[in-house]
């Protein structure tokens, strides 16, 4: 390689995209020409080296779309508190270590005055690819306080929630009475077009950032299992449309009934194969839109090590199924138990499919024609099982009382509705 070629290979481009008052720095660095291996950069504060050896290897879809290498050139780093004087202004710049060149323009920032109120503890346990944020927050000085939290996405307020859900693991860990969990969803419009988002919490009263930052990373490719689940839902809805078409034909005594049904089926699967928008699914989309508009979102929690599985039995009415799942969530039962909607293949209703549009983290188990409820119960994998018809609305403490009775005598068979 000639000296001129070596100089070109060392040349880099990059930029500091953002510096948060709380100390998070986000940016990128990439070679001008191949090979596009990970670059290492340094961050300087007011001209003095602050952090060195930062590897730029995070994937960013915006870099790929802009034709910058393979897109794996981003970085996100949290500056230690020792490098930030609360309330002071600073100039943050970026240096490519291989070439010694400064990249982009320096960023001016004023560091936050107080990073965390001393009496508050907070933690983000999980940020799912669908935008569900699960965590906890409690006030040591006032354990009974239900802390109002702001959830920030890349430093911008996204949603407000209250840390008031009961979690047994928090009670056992000494976090007050355990009523300090939360779960909420980031707006879909905020996360739909972004591969990675930094998520932080903010005290709703003081506006101060609390706890540690978490990162939402959305997969670029939908898994085969997710594609199959989506197709099963579409087929379930198609079956309802076929019944409606058949009913119209019978009422009209139309000799074209059979051809209409065959055309409906054929066009559905042909459009699926071709990847085209399905005109036959327009009414189904309208039905889904109606459900989303009518029912508020229920973000079911995820139990860490559940000892009970709750099989919810639909009855063909989506309003009752939604109300039952919402009641389980309000009672905190979803943080102690695995919640499964047991779809028995009933032809009368589509509630088990449609409810997935307004409930997150509810698993659906569909029985095959040759299966019984007992076959489904064998898949629970937990010491205890609850069958809950969806017309029953559990209240606070329902599952705790049920588990206490079962622990007292595991041979018991208890009517859960009596306790609810």
What is the number of helical segments per DSSP (H or I, 4+ residues)?
12
* Structure class: alpha+beta
> What's the helical proportion of residues?
25-40%
* Number of beta-strand segments: 22
Major sheet attributes:
4 strands, antiparallel
Distance between the termini: 77 Å
Mean pLDDT: 77
Low-confidence stretches: 1-9, 276-281, 416-420
Strand content: 25-35%
| Rough outline | elongated
Over all CA atoms, what is the radius of gyration? 27 Å
Strand order, main sheet: write it out. 1-2-6-5
Q: How would you characterize this protein structure?
A:
The model is unreliable at 1-9, 276-281 and 416-420 (pLDDT under 50). The chain contains twelve helices and 22 strands. The strands form six sheets. It has a four-stranded antiparallel sheet. Strands 4-3-7-8 form a four-stranded antiparallel sheet, with no helix packed on it. A four-stranded antiparallel sheet has the order 9-10-14-13. With 420 residues, it is α+β, with helices and mostly antiparallel strands.
List keywords for this structure.
420 residues; alpha+beta; four-stranded antiparallel beta sheet
């Amino acid at each position: 390689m000639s000296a001129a070629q070596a100089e070109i290979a060392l040349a880099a481009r990059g930029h500091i995209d953002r510096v948060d008052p709380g100390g998070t720095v986000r940016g990128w660095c990439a070679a001008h020409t191949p090979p596009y291996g990970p670059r290492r950069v340094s961050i300087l504060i007011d001209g003095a080296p602050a952090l060195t050896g930062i590897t730029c290897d995070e994937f960013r879809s915006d870099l790929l779309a802009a034709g910058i290498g393979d897109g794996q050139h981003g970085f996100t780093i949290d500056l230690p508190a020792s490098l930030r004087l609360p309330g002071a202004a600073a100039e943050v710049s970026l240096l490519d270590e291989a070439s010694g060149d400064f990249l982009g323009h320096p960023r001016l920032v004023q560091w936050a005055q107080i990073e965390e109120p001393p009496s508050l503890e907070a933690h983000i346990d999980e940020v799912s690819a669908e935008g569900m944020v699960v965590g906890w927050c409690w006030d040591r000085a006032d354990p009974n306080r239900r802390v109002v939290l702001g959830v920030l996405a890349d430093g911008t307020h996204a949603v407000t929630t209250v840390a008031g859900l009961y979690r047994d693991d928090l009670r056992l860990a000494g976090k007050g009475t355990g009523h300090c969990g939360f779960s909420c969803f980031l707006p879909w419009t905020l996360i739909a077009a972004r591969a990675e988002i930094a998520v932080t919490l903010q005290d709703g009263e003081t506006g101060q950032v609390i706890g540690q930052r978490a990162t939402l990373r959305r997969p670029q490719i939908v898994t085969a299992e997710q594609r199959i689940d989506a197709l099963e839902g579409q087929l379930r809805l198609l079956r309802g449309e076929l019944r409606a078409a058949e009913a119209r034909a019978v009422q009209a005594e139309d000799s074209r009934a059979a051809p209409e049904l065959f055309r409906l089926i054929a066009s559905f699967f042909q459009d699926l194969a071709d990847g085209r928008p399905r005109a036959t699914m327009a009414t189904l989309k309208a039905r889904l839109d109606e459900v989303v508009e009518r029912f508020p979102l229920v973000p079911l929690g995820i139990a860490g090590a559940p000892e009970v599985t709750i099989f919810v039995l639909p009855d063909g009415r989506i309003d009752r199924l939604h109300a039952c799942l919402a009641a389980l969530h309000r009672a905190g039962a979803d943080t102690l138990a695995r919640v499964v909607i047991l779809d028995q293949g009933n032809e009368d209703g589509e509630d088990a499919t449609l409810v997935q549009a307004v409930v997150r983290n509810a698993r659906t188990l569909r029985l095959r024609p040759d299966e019984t409820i007992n076959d489904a119960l064998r898949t629970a994998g937990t010491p205890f099982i609850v069958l809950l018809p969806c017309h029953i609305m559990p209240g606070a403490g329902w599952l705790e009382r049920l588990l206490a009775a079962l622990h007292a005598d595991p041979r018991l068979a208890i009517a859960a509705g009596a306790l609810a």
